[in-house]
Amino acid sequence: MLFDTWHLFKKYLRISLRMPMWTIFGLIQPLLWLLIFSALFGGFASMPGFPAASYIDYFLPGVVVMTVLFGSSWSGVSLLRELTAGTVARMLVSPISRTAVVLSRVLHSAFLVLLQVIIVLLTALPLGAHITTQISFILAGLTAVVLLGVAFASISNGLAIMLQREEPLVMIGNLMTLPLMFFSTAMVPQQFMPSWLQYAAMFNPVEYGVQAARAALQANPDAGVFWPAAGITALFAIAATAWAVSAFKALRD
Amino acid sequence: MIKIAGLTKTFPSGARALAGVDLEVKPGEILALLGPNGAGKTTAVRVLTTLCGFDSGHVAVAGHDIDVEPEKVRQAIGYVAQETGVDYFLTGRENLTLQGQLYRMTKADILARSAELGEYFDLTTQLDQLVSTYSGGMRRKLDIATALIHRPKVLFLDEPTLGLDAPSRQSLWQYVRRLNTDLGLTILLTTHYLDEADKLAHRVAIIDNGKIQVIDTPDALKDTIKGDAIILEVADTQTIPKLQYVLANMADVQDIRIDGPHVHVYVAQGATMIPRLVDATRASGAEIKYLTFARPTLDDVFLRYTGSSMTRKKDGSEPNAWWKQWAGKGGGKWQKQWQQDQTATETAAAPPPEAPWQRWQNQGDTSDGAPSAANSGTWPQQEAWRDAQTSVPDEARQKAWPESQHWQSDEGGPKTKASWKQTGKPGPHTKD
Ligand SMILES: Nc1ncnc2c1ncn2[C@@H]1O[C@H](COP(=O)(O)OP(=O)(O)O)[C@@H](O)[C@H]1O
Ligand SMILES: [Mg+2]
Q: How many CB atoms within 10 Å of residue B198?
């Protein structure tokens, strides 16, 4: 299964590298948000009780998570294309592990998202953002990113199989992304949120991804916050992947 | 090599794709599944290639039960789908290599095999180009090469020449024949081209409505239609019923099949029959637009066994129509309404007998819905047909009569089309 996954992963990566434009286009939106929000809410940071030195410092992990959400929801769309193109059938007539098909797609998507996140981080630095300089925490933060990417790519693939249509899939992807971002501390610290929003955020898996990314990447990393948040994100990723795999196996109408 | 017994498959949407298929493919044989769109060909192949489940029946491929040892079946078969299965964004060689890796072949073996297949299919010079630069014929060849990477014993080709131009088709036929003779591959191909089945296959199985209607060698099938076929195209379909009645009472006429404006008349001696036929047709008040006289083709066989001509049978159901998927999932109410409308139309489509000659009419026209007894065998089936009629309530018949005229003159479209027209409901659109 691991070999199957690896071969397919290589295939997807090769295709992506032949069309790097898509990966670059995917960066436009998060970078725009970063610029606009930092300019709009720059004054936020001077409010008493704001947990970071500047708004961009606070918001950067939020943008990182946003990049993950936008980037990984395309995975399902390309699965649908592959299903209609017949390349999935090509794989399935071979004795390949069915799990590997989903796993390779999900890992590929998470890998691209990881590259995008690194570019976002590198772009943010000259804009005045501060992140931790400890390599171990940077790696921890990127791990959280990959986990969240795996989770959302899995959800996107699973939804693709349930819906079987591109349009509703894209629609649901868009509908899902923004509320998930707003119902979290990606943009606004908890103490500035109305209590019902705080409550809602507790049930939002994205919130834990944001927490883990922020705890690891902020200028003064906080391992005490990181571990539980990353743990929940990992559980979320595993559950989502299991769901996508079972949906894919049931595809055999 | 392939054994199928009592295979049935109904999709969750309610579409009955396979209604009891029995079939045996011998080792080293090319067998063609010939049938119109929606007959169940793709579904059958997908079941045989382990891509899709089934409801009941027994299926064994290359000696392995498909339910018990799907892995062994997969190892023994190659499959070329109706859609291209090769990746456009990879080169030909990369496609071959990936497929080899999925079959867990060794690196050296993959390398050797790719070169060998590239040569066999005359693709060597293009093997390192992206598939998106290939022509349709090249893509199809690469598709077959990819399916053969692991040296399977059985090859499944689903509509292998669909969408190819004439020269590519001819060339592909050559390859298929060579694969069979050179490598001894057992090949099951599906097609809706009569000439393809005729020229390529050792045996042809005609499939319609999810059932194998008949299976034999192309020649033997053609022999079941004795004598010559004379095809009259009349100017006005309204005149057909009477013409049919007149012809049926002529001496030496063996069989008559109606297919839209075409009246197929089967006789022992075509040459001597033509003048008499022309006279009789005039006398009946019908006007002949064209007259063709030929040895029976597979099309005649098809007409005989399925009740409608292959060449005129049009696609009534797009298998991947998106609305079907929705109708099947959750869109329950709408779907039910549609089905009701459809059954209502089907019941109502039978016209009431008004004059003796009109009773014959139904034979050619309700090919899809009528009991198969009405479509096979020889004259006369009047009695059987009348019995079937009495099950239709009078009222429904009265109401439906003018409308059934409507779809009858419709260009060979199956009933789904007509039901939309009749109910006037905005419905899902098949592409036509
Ligand atoms: N995935 C599917 N879901 C629902 N119905 C389907 C599906 N695939 C095929 N069908 C239906 O099954 C029947 C047979 O289709 P198919 O096997 O594709 O025919 P063919 O290949 O001979 O054109 C058709 O009525 C089609 O609408
Ligand atoms: Mg088909």
A: 20
Protein residues whose CB sits closer than 6 Å to any atom of ligand 1: A 253; B 11, 13, 15, 17, 35, 37-43, 317, 319, 324
State how far the Cα of B377 lies from the Cα of B359, in Å rounded to an integer.
17
Contacting residues of A for B53, CB less than 8 Å apart: 252-253
* Amino acid identity for residue B208 in this structure: D
As a whole-number percent, the residues of chain B with pLDDT over 70 amount to 71
User: Mean of the pLDDT values across residues A189-209?
Assistant: 91
Map out the domains of chain B with their CATH numbers. Answer: 2-221 (3.40.50.300), 226-295 (3.30.70.100), 392-432 (no CATH)
To the nearest whole angstrom, how far is the Cα of A103 from the nearest Cα of chain B?
15
User: pLDDT category, B67, cuts 50, 70, 90?
Assistant: very high
Q: Mean pLDDT throughout A46-55? A: 86
Q: Classify residue B428 by its DSSP letter.
A: -
Amino acid in position B147: A
Question: Residue B365 pLDDT more than 80?
Answer: no
Q: What is the pLDDT of residues B94-105, one digit of tens each?
A: 999 999 999 999
Q: Is A106 exposed, middle or buried, given 0-12, 13-18 or 19+ CB atoms closer than 10 A?
A: buried
Half-sphere exposure of B370 (CA within 13 A, CB side): 27
DSSP β-bridge partners for residue B30: B187
Instruction: Give the pLDDT confidence of B217-226 residue by residue, as tens digits.
Output: 988 888 777 7
Residue B366 has pLDDT above 90, yes or no: no
Look at ligand 1, atom 9, and give the residue with the nearest C-alpha.
Answer: B319
Name the domain count of chain A.
Answer: 1
CA distance A244 to A76: 10
> Other CB atoms closer than 10 Å to residue A179's CB: what's the count?
12
B337: left (phi over 0), alpha (psi -120 to 50) or beta: alpha
Enter the pTM of the model.
0.75
Q: How far apart are CA A245 and CA A1, in angstroms?
A: 13
ipTM here: 0.90
- Span B298-333, pLDDT tens digits: 777 887 787 776 655 544 444 444 444 444 343 334
Size of interface A-B (CB pairs under 8 A): 80
- Name the residue range of residue A10's domain: 2-249
Ligand 1 atom index nearest CA of B43: 17
- The string of DSSP codes covering B130-188 is BGGGS-HHHHHHHHHHHHTTT--SEEEEESTTTT--HHHHHHHHHHHHHHHHHH--EEE
Evaluate whether B229 touches B256 at the Cβ level (below 8 Å): no
Task: Please classify residue B150 by burial: count the beta carbons closer than 10 Å to its beta carbon, then call 0-12 exposed, 13-18 middle and 19+ buried.
Answer: buried
Contacts 24+ apart (CB under 8 A), B397-401: B397/B348, B397/B350, B397/B351, B397/B352, B398/B352, B399/B348, B400/B345, B400/B348, B400/B349, B400/B350, B400/B351, B401/B351, B401/B352
Helix (H) and strand (E) counts in chain A: 11, 0
DSSP state of B353: P
Residues 6+ positions from A77 with CB-CB distance below 8 Å: A156, A160, A166, A169, A170
**How many CB atoms within 10 Å of residue A208?**
24
**How far is the first Cα of chain B from the last one, in angstroms, to the nearest whole number?**
39
Quick one: pLDDT at residue A37?
86
The single-letter DSSP state of residue A148 is H
